[in-house]
Amino acid sequence: MPPLAGKTLEEATKALELMGTQPAVKRIYDPKSTPGAVLSTDPSPGSPLTMTPTLTVAGAPGSAPLSGLKGIGNCGPISSGSVNGTKVTNGLRCAVGHNPTTTYWILDRTVARLQGTIGIDDSSDTAATARITITADGKPLLDQDIAYGQSANLDADITGVLRLEVTVTETSTSKKSGTSGTTYVVLGNAVVLGSAAAIAALGGTP
Question: 9-60 in CATH: which number?
Fold first, then answer.
């Protein structure tokens, strides 16, 4: 078996077919590899070549909205809204009060990334500010104050994480007259990425 790790699937397949074999392909999600790249071979490099070698290839990730996973806390799913003028087609909205509130998800150490946009819902009090803290097994992924009309993009490695937590606290002390005074933090278009099997096991809806 020749060394093929790092080559594209097309390159590796062509090389093996020229040697008279019919390779099989096994795809897995590897967040550190480019989809379509060969990760390993069976037999291993230097071993006698079989008629049906197997190429393990990096596949594209499965994904599911965070709102489709079971969370415990006061954050609930939304299907529309906007943050800092950007539309949200799916996400989570968390009502904010003077006391910190936390929502958490058990991810079973199976997913690899968390992506989304964090900010205050455009329907909130325009004087609102809130502190948003997102942690993965206690390690901060995001910890900052965000004011109305601001947003923060999140693209975090959560490989091997068991528990994801989102804590929100209102930090503004004044309200504009004529407003409802309600503040909402939104995790807009928030998704988790991982293998298709991992997403299915969490009960998400890809």
Answer: 3.30.10
Give the number of other CB atoms < 10 A from CB of residue 169. Answer: 18
CATH number of 63-201: 2.60.120.1060
8's CB contacts (< 8 A; 6+ apart) are 36, 37, 38
The rounded distance, in Å, linking the Cα atoms of 40 and 23 is 13
Lowest mean pLDDT segment, chosen from 99-103, 171-175, 193-197: 171-175
- Name the residue with tokens 């004529």: 178
- Tokens representing 152 are 């923060």
For residue 127, give the amino acid letter. Answer: A
Domain ranges of the chain: 9-60, 63-201
Please state the pTM of the whole predicted model.
Answer: 0.76
Return the pLDDT at 206.
44
